[in-house]
Design brief:
Elements: E1 6-10, E2 19-20, E3 25-26, E4 33-35, E5 46-48
Antiparallel strand pairs: 1-3, 2-3, 4-5
Length: 54
C-alpha cells in the first residue's frame, strides 16, 4: 500500500501500517502521542497512539 509521506513526522517503526519504509517517514497528516505512565519522565514512557500493525 502506498501513502504520501509526511515530511514532518519521522518514524522508524516499520511494523506500522503508516510507515513509509523507503524514507522512514509517516504517511499520516497528524499523529496522537500518549503515555502508559502516570507521571512520564523519559521518552521511553511515551507511545504513538496512531500506531496500527500492518
Amino acid at each position: 500500500m502506498s501513502h504520501k509521506c509526511n515530511q514532518t513526522i519521522r518514524c522508524t517503526v516499520d511494523q506500522c501500517r503508516f510507515h513509509e519504509k523507503v524514507e522512514n517517514l509517516c504517511s499520516l497528516d497528524a499523529i496522537t502521542v500518549g503515555t502508559h505512565e502516570a507521571n512520564p519522565s523519559m521518552d521511553q514512557c511515551t507511545d504513538c497512539l496512531s500506531f496500527e500493525k500492518c
